[in-house]
Design brief:
460 residues; 24% strand; YpeB_PepSY1-2; PepSY; YpeB_N; transmembrane
């Protein structure tokens, strides 16, 4: 009897040894795979940071040059360069794995520099001179850009010295959101953000004008919700069946529209690659959502992507939205949807009420939503009756433009004003223009030129 027992023990020993070797091998393979993934992630985010620093350096250089140029033509070129570099920096900083709260003011600064320079470019092209106040603002923006560039270099140094790791930050962000103290980089960007609040108030007609932003957000009048209720809103927005884990929300972000910030891990997705989403404390609306997943080769046409975005908004309660302008970059179509209402005179496009949606062109996923402007401005407006008919308004537009289309619109102007207009689209030679004529007094309120670029149409 002793011999069979010894044999069994020997067999069991072999099995245990095989299991130990197998488990150890599997653990090693998983560790190597995780390390390789982490290295890829680290490399990708390091490149984003490197390109961000390049954008900010070029931004500061262009701001410096424009203060000493005596040529209107050269100034126009430099304002165009400032616009491009600030826009590129804004895109890249928002792609880094940093909480939305930590970079809100920096992101706002870059966006407003881009829009401000664009408005000055239009002034240069129209032959108007810049005011002393505008030149003073440019000097202040140059100083802020220099400060931002210096601080970004310290972040890069910390990375190179091994004090922080992007893949680790991404993982920490998936578990603990809104606690900037949990990692060095979030803390640094929070410090930068405090300084960026000091940028000057920029007076110009644009989508991010301080004058437009100074309006009290309409959403503030809606009832407050709890963080737990905000999680339910996320489930409704993204789809409960797609979600594996929701974290964050314990600390609120008191921005333009106060929010609960969250990280959401989707099923089948690595925890290192969550979706960032902010829910408004008032009303429980999605203010901001960003999915930074890798986008593969485009397989969807722009028109289909626009329809996908439209259906997405409609399914989530944003009714009567229509597409405005769109741009394509890095496999993503960014579409601005605006609210439209019916009146006695026909459909009225309400430009202050707009939502930006990002659609991935590889499979049609919604990978970004920015709804702050809609939540700030949207309300049940009483549309006035136009005092001019369409022919009377058309006569106020230049006869050098061949009008091809017209409709009614509400557009935002300086200092909290909204204006009820006729929107006329027309051609002059190969150029397309949009002219806005006040529907109540016939005043020409604004002119935009539409530029066709490889990325899409641009209103200038």
């Amino acid at each position: 009897m002793e011999q069979p027992i010894m044999r069994k023990r020997g067999v069991y020993g072999v099995i245990v040894a095989v299991l130990v070797v197998g488990v150890t091998t599997l653990a090693c393979l998983l560790y190597v795979d995780r390390m390789q993934f982490g290295n890829r992630l680290q490399g990708a985010y390091q490149k984003q940071l490197f390109d961000l620093i390049g954008n900010v350096q070029n931004l500061e250089t262009a701001l410096s040059k424009v203060t000493v140029t005596a040529s209107p033509e050269q100034a126009a070129l430099l304002f165009g360069e400032i616009w491009r570099q600030a826009g590129g920096a804004s895109d890249r900083i928002n792609a880094l794995p940093i909480t939305h709260v930590a970079i809100s003011e920096t992101s706002k600064f870059l966006t407003q520099v881009s829009d401000f320079s664009f408005s000055l470019l239009k002034l240069q092209n129209s032959g108007e001179k810049l005011t002393d106040e505008e030149w003073k603002n440019i000097e202040a923006l140059k100083k802020n850009a220099a400060y931002l560039g210096q601080q970004l270099y310290t972040v890069q140094d910390d990375m190179e010295e091994g004090k922080a790791n992007w893949s680790h930050i991404r993982y920490e962000g998936a578990r603990i959101l809104g606690q900037a103290q949990t990692n060095l980089i979030d803390s640094k960007f929070t410090d930068i953000d405090k300084q960026m609040q000091q940028h000057p108030t920029l007076i110009y007609d644009g989508p991010y004008s301080e004058n437009v932003l100074s309006i009290e957000p309409k959403v503030i009048n809606q009832p407050e919700i709890t963080a737990e209720q905000a999680k339910q809103k996320i489930e409704e927005f993204l789809g409960r069946e797609k979600i594996q884990e929701i974290s964050g929300g314990s600390e609120s972000a008191n921005g333009r529209v106060p929010t609960y910030p969250f990280n959401v891990v989707l099923k089948g997705r690595d925890k290192n690659n969550p979706v960032d989403i902010d829910i408004s404390k008032n009303g429980g609306h999605v203010v901001y959502m960003l999915d930074s997943r890798e986008i593969s080769e485009a397989k969807i046409e722009n028109k289909k992507a626009i329809d996908i975005g439209l259906q997405f908004l409609s399914d989530r309660g944003f009714k009567n939205m229509i597409p405005s302008f769109s741009q394509k970059a890095d496999g993503i179509l960014v579409v601005n949807y605006v609210h439209a209402v019916e009146s006695k005179g026909g459909t009225v496009v309400v430009y202050p009420d707009q939502i930006k949606v990002k659609i991935a062109l590889d499979n049609g996923d919604i990978v970004g939503v920015e709804a702050e402007k809609y939540l700030v401005a949207h309300n049940e407006r009483k549309i006035p009756e136009a005092k001019l008919n369409v022919d009377e308004a058309r006569s106020k537009a230049s006869n050098k433009i061949k009008i091809t289309n017209s409709r009614l619109a509400i557009i935002p102007l300086l200092s909290k004003r909204e204006v009820f207009c006729y929107e006329f689209v027309g051609k002059k030679g190969d150029s397309t223009f949009i002219v806005y004529i006040n529907a109540e007094n016939g005043k020409e309120e604004n002119i935009l030129q539409i530029l066709d670029t490889p990325e899409g149409q641009l209103a200038m």
